[in-house]
């Protein structure tokens, strides 16, 4: 299993789920929770949860469980949500616009500061007050703004070139939606979101579940 620092990627993938459930518990004014209750919510075993948290020193207290708000904040810090990231989107088509319109990313510290496009018909338009700019303005823009994350929502043919371009400008993290595995130098992080791969996995699961019910 791949590791990120000392922590395995499997743990990294579970952290956002814990964080989301804890956020919901806070909304419902629940102050503390045992690992058993957290396991019923998340579907992970209680020992898995304790092991996961032990990677970061462990947070619970024997006989008390976890303080929901404290754990939520600590996991948020571990996920880096306390930092705040300047984010740009490249490709203002269907998906780029949908992401730009989603306010929740901003609420979590992913500040959208610019949208870039090559199609002239989008120039001068804004999404939630963020201007859509010509892709040729990217270099000038990044002289005045520190960009932490670039979201790539261009067709796959343009994705690698866009990635190289933003990396040359100092961007260290890419959230890539184009169905291509972008190559990056060491030290640059990429999170690929390949929606069609997820859909194919769903198709497989449908097939398996039908097969199992037919065999019952
Ligand atoms: N829409 C979805 O639900 C979905 C699902 C799975 C995967 N994807 C992937 O996400 C990406 C975007 O999909 P979409 O549906 O939004 O496509 P789209 O065609 O609506 O939008 C892509 C936009 O990128 C722009 N673009 C192209 N080259 C560019 C460049 N060099 N610089 C700046 N902008 C450039 C185009 O002008 C266009 O506006 C694609 O790679 C697609 O395969 C989308």
Q: What small molecules are bound in this structure?
A: nicotinamide-adenine-dinucleotide
| Overall geometry | globular
Domain module tally: 2
Which segments are poorly predicted (pLDDT under 50) over 5 or more consecutive residues? Answer: none
Distance between the termini: 34 Å
Task: State the fourth-level CATH superfamily of the largest domain.
Answer: NAD(P)-binding Rossmann-like Domain
GO biological process, one term: response to redox state
Pfam families: CoA_binding (PF02629), Put_DNA-bind_N (PF06971)
GO cellular component, one term: cytoplasm
Keywords: Cytoplasm, DNA-binding, NAD, Repressor, Transcription, Transcription regulation
Structural summary, described in words:
It is a single chain. The protein has about 220 residues and is α/β, with parallel strands linked by helices. It has 2 domains: about 80 residues, Arc Repressor Mutant, subunit A (Orthogonal Bundle); about 110 residues, NAD(P)-binding Rossmann-like Domain (Rossmann fold, 3-Layer(aba) Sandwich). Helices cover about 45% and strands about 20% of the residues. The protein has a 7-stranded mixed sheet. A two-stranded antiparallel ribbon has the order 1-2. A two-stranded antiparallel ribbon has the order 3-4. Strand 1 and strand 2 form a beta hairpin. The relative contact order is 0.08. The mean pLDDT is about 90. The site of nicotinamide-adenine-dinucleotide has 23 residues, from helix 5, strand 6, helix 8 and helix 9.
């Amino acid at each position: 299993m791949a590791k990120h620092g000392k922590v395995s990627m499997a743990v990294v993938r579970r952290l956002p789920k814990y964080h989301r459930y804890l956020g919901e518990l806070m909304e419902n004014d629940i102050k503390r929770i045992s690992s058993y209750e957290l396991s019923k919510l998340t579907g992970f075993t209680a020992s898995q949860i304790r092991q996961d948290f032990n990677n970061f020193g462990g947070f619970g207290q024997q006989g008390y469980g976890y303080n929901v708000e404290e754990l939520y904040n600590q996991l948020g810090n571990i996920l880096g949500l306390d930092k705040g990231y300047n984010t740009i989107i490249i490709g203002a088509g269907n998906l780029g616009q949908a992401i730009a319109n989603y306010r929740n990313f901003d609420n979590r510290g992913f500040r959208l500061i610019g949208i870039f496009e090559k199609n002239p018909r989008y120039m001068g338009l804004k999404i939630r007050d963020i201007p859509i700019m010509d892709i040729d303005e990217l270099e000038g823009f990044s002289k005045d703004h520190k960009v932490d994350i670039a979201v790539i929502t261009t067709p796959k043919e343009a994705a690698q070139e866009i990635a190289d371009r933003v990396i040359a400008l100092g961007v260290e993290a890419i959230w890539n939606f184009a169905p291509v595995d972008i190559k990056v130098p060491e030290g640059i992080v990429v999170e690929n979101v390949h929606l069609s791969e997820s859909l194919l996995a769903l198709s497989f699961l449908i097939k398996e579940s039908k097969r199992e019910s037919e065999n019952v």
